[in-house]
Every structure is written in C-alpha cells, then in structure tokens.
Amino acid sequence: MSMSHSSEPLAGQETNAAGSSLPPAIDPADQLARLGQSWAWLVGAAMATLVPGILMLVWPDATLHVLAVLIGVYLLVIGGFRFVSVFGRDSDRMPGLIVAVLFVLGGVLCLKNPLQTITALSLIVGAVWLVSGIVTLYTAVATKNMPHRGIVMAVATLGIIAGIVVLALPAESARALTRLLGLWLVLLGLAETAAALAWRSALRRTSITGPNVSGPAR
C-alpha cells in the first residue's frame, strides 16, 4: 500500500506560478539583529574608537584640519556601528537610535567644515560623548536583565566624564586637543573592548543554558 505525498508547501513558504516552493524572504531587520548581537561587531566598534585614539597620541602634531577629518570619520563610523547594534537589542531601541543619529550628525558637522575653530570641534565631540553616555547609562539602569550591567554602566560613566572634561576644559591649541581627545578615545576603546568580551562570555553561557539575555546596550 503506497502513501501519497502532499504537494502543499510548508507553512511560511511562498510558491511561484509553477507551484514550487520558494525560500522564505530575508528580513533585513533580522540580519541586522544577528549582526548587532555578535560580540565581534562590538569589538569592531571598540577598535574604531581605539585606533583613532592611538593615532592621535602618536601623532600629536597633526594639524587642525587633519584632526577634524579624523574625528569626523570616527563619529560617522561609530554612528554606523551603533545603528546596527540597536537591532540586536530586545529592549526599547529609540535611545540607541538617538545616539546613532547624534554620532552621525557630529561626524557630518566635523567634516562639513574641517577648518573650524578648536572650540567648535571640542563642543561637538564633548556634546556627543556626554549625551551618548547619559543615554547609555539610562538604558543600562532601565534594563534589569542586562548581562554585565556594571561594565556597561562603567563605560557610560566614562563617556559622561569624557564629555564633561572636553566641554569644561577647552584646549588652547590643536596639539593639546589632539592629546586630550586621543587619551579619552583610548580609554573609551579599552572600556568598550572589555564590554565586548563580557558580551562574548554572556553569549557563550546563553548557548549552554538557553537564550535568556537581552542584547547589549549601545
């Protein structure tokens, strides 16, 4: 006795005109979520902060034009990293989107007029760091089940301090500003690297005990 096989497609599959099943459509949001939840993506964002800081410290005599371009590219790249990382979070995404837009806007302002004054450049970077740190700290406090919450809060606090220092102590020369920003970028990059490694540890535990953690706060 032979059994007949159903020709109906499986649930969730689409069919073409000939009746054959088509692979499910790829959701861009799902792809961004998987990328944003990757610890390697967070490491990439940390390196995008650490590398410019190292360049500034080893090249303190960079002109104001070069410094503005370097800071502008840094802000744009970090804005892109933050935008993708937002999709990897299960909590409210709006604060993260605001931070991402703020970084991109700051980068555009730096690149639009790279010959602007030292004071203007300090105000842009300081404001971005301060607001970003406040939003990240708020997200960490509001997300109760965030893994390694203390590390995220420490990174946010460091960003707030960096913003306050840059805003309260404006540099008098391009060399002084380069050293100041380079120092804070290195510190922030190292802190973000620690947060990324902590997130990797959380992901490894999740793969053993089951998915019970939310995405990283960025």
In short:
It contains 7 helices and 2 strands; from the N terminus they run E-E-H-H-H-H-H-H-H. It is an all-alpha fold and 218 residues long.
Q: What does this protein look like?
A:
The chain has 218 residues and is mainly α. It has one domain (31-204). The chain has seven helices and two strands, in the order ββααααααα. It has helices at residues 28-36, 39-58, 64-86, 94-112, 118-142, 149-168, 174-209, and strands spanning 14-15, 21-22. A two-stranded antiparallel ribbon has the order 1-2. A hairpin with a 5-residue loop joins strand 1 (14-15) and strand 2 (21-22). Helix 3 runs antiparallel to helix 4 (94-112) and helix 4 (94-112) runs antiparallel to helix 5 (118-142). It is elongated and about 50 Å long.
